[in-house]
Design brief:
By secondary structure, this protein is an alpha/beta fold. It folds into three domains: 226 residues, 2-enoyl-CoA Hydratase, Chain A, domain 1; 128 residues, no CATH class; 56 residues, Nucleic acid-binding proteins (OB fold (Dihydrolipoamide Acetyltransferase, E2P), Beta Barrel), CATH 2.40.50.140. Helices cover 49% and strands 19% of the residues. It contains 15 helices and 16 strands. The strands form four sheets. Strands 8-5-3-2-1-11 form a six-stranded parallel β-sheet, with helices on both faces. Helix 12 runs parallel beside helix 15 and helix 13 runs antiparallel to helix 15. The longest helix is centred in the middle third of the chain and has 28 residues. The chain starts with a helix and ends with a strand. About 3% of the residues have low confidence.
Length: 431
């Protein structure tokens, strides 16, 4: 409400005509599709508000190279200045965050923060089975590193920042504290808080799309930009732990629906979770071998239910499931990884579900019927009387009309072989 009133006053009152506006957006956690969407939306909003600048409060361990490049393109082609500020104390701008700092028109850090370790990481390195394969792997790694070096060098030259350290950050994964980064010319300034930052950048001349521009930020009104529900939803579903949970819900839900057709709810939840998981996996890189091991592990545990494997299939399934879970996502590539406790918990739950619960379920389905019409089959009855229409027998305390292909005598014990409505078909018990 306060933001709405402030924007209304800014647009209607001439009293605020001379004041500038700076839009602030927070980018926390691993860089991914959601981070890119938030930054683009914030830049669009800042342009609509004719803001003096966009302030990015950054704290990231790194993330996807593709999302990072989208964000850098948005920053370098922005018609308004972008100030990237690593905050609060204890934060970092590692890996992809270092590139974002170099790309920004103003790079600032809080005391007690750091940046660096910008070496590119490959999700699935080429296999090294021979000298030729090793040579191919080395060539691929060199190409990736050289491309990253050229990219960060161009950003450093564009904003007149330290080129040699940028190269070391890529080649040797070098890192720097905020104070050392300022001394080496990697960043522009250190500020204790946002208020002091805006005072320090006031009157600073920057290059904006190749043209010199001066920042007027000392008396600017700071407005926070909040991500819309789509960006927040995207940030949630592209988290590796959430994708993992959705994937398992899909597997278990569809499996339970197939085992018990007509339950509807498990199948419905499984299909919805599966669609969302596939959408997320389409946006973030994952290891196909890890996914295959998870499916193989589930298959082994299912086989243990139906096949008497003395527990070998079940144990092998749990091992494959856990190992596949750990391989599914790469922490260095995504900036975050699966929680080890989550993997262990789901592995044990899967073992209990398939080996115990499903085995009891199968046994209950194959158990002998003890009530209803089906229970009559195989029951023992006593012949009460015989006439030209057949026999009358006593079964479970009730008198039934019976038919038999054999000749029966009164008092003889017989066994029910079939039931047709109210007529039992019986045969002598000795048969």
């Amino acid at each position: 409400m306060r933001k709405f009133l402030l924007l209304l006053l800014l647009s209607l009152s001439p009293l605020f005509a001379a004041e500038s506006v700076i839009i602030k957006v927070a980018i926390k956690g691993a860089i991914g599709p959601a981070s890119s969407a938030v930054l683009k939306n914030a830049l669009t909003y800042a342009q609509q508000q004719k803001a003096e600048a966009l302030l990015i409060e950054l704290d990231t361990p790194g993330g996807l190279s593709s999302s990072m490049r989208e964000m850098i393109q948005a920053i370098t082609n922005s018609p308004i200045p972008v100030i990237t500020y690593v905050t609060p104390r204890g934060s970092r701008a590692a890996s992809a965050g270092t590139y974002l700092l170099y790309a920004s028109h103003v790079a600032a850090m809080s005391p007690g923060t750091n940046l660096g370790a910008a070496t590119p990481i490959s999700l699935i390195p080429p296999p090294k089975q021979s000298d030729a394969d090793e040579s191919a792997a080395t060539t691929a790694e060199k190409k990736a590193v050289n491309d990253a070096v050229a990219y960060i060098t161009s950003l450093a030259q564009m904003n007149e920042r330290n080129v040699s350290w940028a190269v070391d950050a890529v080649k040797s994964a070098e890192s720097l504290s905020a104070e050392d980064a300022l001394k080496l010319g990697v960043i522009d300034l250190i500020a204790d808080d946002t208020k002091s930052l805006l005072k320090k950048v006031d009157g600073r001349t920057i290059k904006l799309l190749g043209v010199a521009a001066k920042l007027q930020s000392k008396e600017s009104v700071l407005i926070s930009f909040e991500a819309d529900w789509k960006s927040r939803f995207l940030a949630i579903i592209t988290d590796p732990n959430i994708v993992y949970i959705l994937l398992l819900i899909a597997l278990y839900g569809i499996f339970f629906e197939l085992m018990n057709p007509g339950a509807v709810l498990p199948g419905l939840l499984g299909v919805i979770a599966g669609v969302i998981a596939l959408y997320a996996l389409n946006m973030i890189p994952f290891n196909y071998a890890g996914l295959l091991l998870i499916l193989l592990g589930v298959s082994f545990m299912v086989a243990e239910v139906f096949v008497s494997g003395f527990g070998v299939l079940g144990i092998g399934g749990v091992v494959a499931f856990a190992f596949g879970s750990l391989l599914l996502f790469d922490a260095d590539t995504l900036g975050s990884s699966l929680s080890l406790s989550l993997v262990i918990a789901f592995s044990l739950v899967s073992l209990a579900f398939f080996i115990l619960v499903m085995r009891l379920f199968i046994r209950s389905r194959s158990a002998k019927v003890v009530t209803g019409a089906e229970e009559m089959i195989g029951a023992v009855a006593e012949v009460l009387e015989a006439d030209h229409n057949g026999y009358h027998v006593l079964c479970h305390g009730e008198t039934w009309h019976a038919e038999s292909e054999s000749k029966l005598t009164v008092g003889q014990n017989v066994q029910v072989s079939e039931r047709d409505g109210l007529i039992l078909k019986v045969k002598p018990l000795k048969e």
